[in-house]
Amino acid sequence: MVDLKLQYEKISEEINKAILRVLESTAFINGPEVQSFARELERFLGVKHVIPCGNGTDALQVALMSLDLKPGDEVITSDFTFIATVETIALLGLKPVVVDVDPSHFNITAKTIEPSITEKTRAIIPVHLFGQCAPMEEILSLAKKYNLFVIEDTAQATGTQYFPENGQKLNAGTLGDIGCTSFFPSKNLGGYGDGGALFTNDDERAEKLKTLVNHGMKKRYYHDYIGVNSRLDSIQAAILRIKLSHLKEYNQARQQAAALYDQVFESLESIQIPQKVAWSDHIYHQYTLQIKGIDRNMVREKLAQKSIPAMIYYPVPLHRQKAFAPYRFKDAGFPVTNSLCNSVLSLPMHTELDKKQIEYINENFKNIILNSSL
After folding, report:
1. C-alpha angle 372/373/374, rounded to 5°?
2. Bridge-partner residues for 200, per DSSP?
3. Are residues 123 and 209 in the same domain?
4. How far apart are alpha carbons 257 and 347 in whole angstroms?
5. Most buried pick, 37, 44, 208, 260, via CB within 10 A?
6. Does residue 204 sit in the same domain as residue 304?
7. Are 80 and 340 in contact (CB under 8 A)?
8. pLDDT (tens digit, 9 = 90+) per residue, 176-235?
């Protein structure tokens, strides 16, 4: 699904020098590489503060910790996403409230969120799924109406641009109160291990986030909050600095690969290609199709026979997960998510896909679909 080896080979000289620079410095934790990476990512995103941390899940947890929420307070997020988004809510003793998504772009909207807002609701976490932004302006307007915090989960959309109605161009993760991302190796901006970061334009909030990721400590051995130990190590920061310098070209390569997929698949009646929205570009963390009227698992098996990997993101909605059974979500309230979990299939999508590989995938996938429709 992702060819990290070939990507590394193309930038190996840069990467090796960066790693050696850290080894020679012996500044392995919160060293100059971490600080330089934070400043460079701030410039890239156009945000005032980037706070690196240990991983994307920690970023979400620390973001919630910074809001001074109380046990039982409710946080609304997507039912169709990876568990980390909801897991962190529950870990802090808050109440996760998952809502259905839009069937075309797979993200939550003001329409799906508002019916679930109660007097206990304190925050919304929109997830920019598969590389495309949720409709943030309407979500921010809704949050303002009910005095709610907004934390953006941009783990799959670092580098995605949002287009407000005023004609600006903003980056995913910079619109809400706090943005969170992951640098897991398969992400659009991925390291060679775990890593994450938080974004904010609020000076005071930034100071608290920096303190929380460092044991609640501003001054050494003086602890203002109960915090966590969540730090991006210097080797990962050095690697990410190199990868960040290539991120625009990496995202463009994904978009070009998606366009080649689209040309073939958009004419297939049984296939719904990824839909593009007006308010956001799409950087295709995943290229996710909907398969209709054909056994999705059979298609996946036949692709595997041709040595073409395909993944299901996500096979089980969060409201059906055993871990969340105590919250008693009603299955009937999630018709779109239930349908998506039975129909989505993601094809290989990465920066090193070449035309020959895509043509091979296109030809075999098209034949499988057409023969299955007979």
Report:
1. 95
2. 49
3. yes
4. 11
5. 37
6. no
7. yes
8. 999 999 999 999 999 999 999 999 999 999 999 999 999 999 999 999 999 999 999 999
